[in-house]
Specification:
The protein has 311 residues and is an alpha/beta fold. It contains 9 helices and 14 strands. The structure holds adenosine monophosphate (AMP) and magnesium ion.
């Protein structure tokens, strides 16, 4: 797409809400990654997101809401979903529910994914807007999500109507997605919250499974290559430093052309995508990712590295 729009760059969340009301496309930071959003009830605005991102038409968008009380207006909320909402929202968790509001965009599915972000700027924007905002991660389809304003500007200036400035994402990986439209509920994508933590609260939860040939994924997004830089990504435990390649991991040695040594899984999550993007900018051809620590966040980091490794 040609970068022909006159993109507004602002901290004014009421202006962002006005642009959404007029059918515009707004890019905004959340506590997970940057999102690219439109009014969920404006079909042509939602479809424009697919054009801008070059996103496959069957990969649905997550509906962002300004407060947890609005969820029951959009999707079917059982007692167990209600207690989950109380415990985890606002925050980095998306729930797939049976859709009850037909006016909300969802690629024709009978279900809808909802989330209430905890990021202060987005909450302000959503509260000024007053309705649902459909938003996938802000990145061209297949590429790593965006976690820094500079990447948001270089990729989307001229493509969207407004970029909302606010604190940078604290977490760095996309939200956890859980499917409650099925029984028992299923974890579709690990994130800040992983299977072990959630299972304590949802004992019958089923974990992310790898698909067998010919099987239909529960979440359309699961069948696409994702999160990947142009450089080839490898998960490794043993690779020694090399001068022409890059590496990321916990307390890794120096000697690489470019490397990032993080202190724990939180730092790993926060910097993984910006590291991928920096590697591409430096023209690096191979990135070696060392395993995360065996603690909270491990599952999400491994999930993203393995997806990025697919070719
Ligand atoms: P993104 O925000 O770009 O990471 O994309 C949203 C993710 O949520 C994708 O993996 C989608 O497939 C998934 N998702 C959104 N809506 C639904 C739904 N109704 N059912 C299953 N998965 C969904
Ligand atoms: Mg995405």
């Amino acid at each position: 797409m040609s970068k022909s729009k006159n993109t507004i760059l602002t901290e004014d969340s009421s202006l962002a809400a006005k642009v959404l009301k007029e059918g515009g496309i707004v890019l905004f930071p959340t506590e997970t990654v940057y999102g690219i959003g439109a009014d969920s009830r404006n079909l042509s605005a939602c479809l424009e997101i697919y054009k801008i991102k070059n996103r496959p038409a069957d990969n649905p968008l997550i509906v962002h809401l300004g407060n947890p009380g609005m969820i029951q207006l959009i999707g079917e909320v059982s007692d167990s979903v209600r207690s989950l909402i109380y415990k985890y929202m606002p925050g980095p968790l998306s729930l797939v529910l049976k859709k009850i509001d037909e006016s909300v965009f969802s690629t024709g599915l009978p279900t809808v994914a909802v989330r209430v972000p905890s990021h202060p700027k987005v909450l302000e924007m959503l509260s000024f807007f007053g309705g649902p905002v459909s938003a996938p991660s802000a990145n061209l389809s297949g590429q790593p999500s965006i976690t820094r304003l500079e990447d948001a500007i270089s990729e989307f200036d001229g493509l969207v109507d407004l970029i909302l400035k606010g604190p940078e994402p604290e977490i760095g990986l996309e939200s956890t997605v859980m499917d409650f439209s099925v029984d028992p509920p299923k974890l579709l994508r690990p994130g800040y919250w992983g299977f072990e933590e959630l299972k304590r609260f949802v004992p019958n939860l089923i974990g992310v499974s790898s698909l067998k040939d010919g099987e239909t994924p529960a979440s359309p997004g699961m069948k696409y290559r994702h999160y990947a830089p142009t450089a080839k990504v490898f998960l490794t435990e043993t690779r020694s430093p090399e001068s022409e390649t890059a590496a990321i991991g916990i307390n890794i040695p120096s000697g690489w052309k470019f490397s990032l040594s993080v202190k724990d899984n939180s730092e790993y999550m926060k910097h993984l995508y910006s590291f991928f993007r920096d590697c591409d900018r430096l023209g690096i051809k191979e990135i070696y990712c060392f395993p995360p620590a065996n603690e909270s966040g491990e599952e999400a980091i491994l999930n993203r590295i393995l997806k990025a490794q697919e070719r």
